[in-house]
Amino acid sequence: MSVRLCPALREVLDSLDPDLRLFAATMGSGLAPQLSRLQPALTPSAASSDGYELASITLSGDDAPDGLSLSACLGAHDAYLATRGDPGGISLGALAIARILVWAQRAAILGSAPRIQWIGPPARRPEGLEGLILTATCRASDGTSSRSAQAIAILDTPEPQAKTPEQ
Length: 167
Known about the structure:
Blueprint: E1 4-5, H1 7-14, H2 18-29, H3 32-38, E2 53-59, H4 67-83, H5 92-110, E3 116-120, E4 132-141, E5 146-155
Parallel strand pairs: 1-2
Antiparallel strand pairs: 2-4, 3-5, 4-5
Helix pairs in contact: 1-4, 2-4, 3-4, 4-5
């Protein structure tokens, strides 16, 4: 893994069964092609030789992700960095985008997931595109400074469901 985790995130990841952790990381690594198409930037080198410590990876204000989501995000991130030729690096943007993609992947497993119209950094949001907004934020520190990255996804607005006679 190319990024160190803060104690709270480490605890979440360590509480996950090792087989489930490996499964989730493998599922996440399958998101590398999507991340490669989006080309999130690599985060500049840390001032500290210890690199960055991931402090948070939130989704629309939620607290820390569960172990499966966190492991999948880290798997996607590491696979993306490997395709970029920087397996020891870090991309907070890739982690933020991965958080949204993992959410969508899990939603698809549970049923009909909302369609993502657009995903990327808020500064590149296309004008006039309407829909539900999902926001992911990653924060990391190298001991002397902190960095953050944010990604948004614009989702199709769900169609109102017609009431059935039983309702």
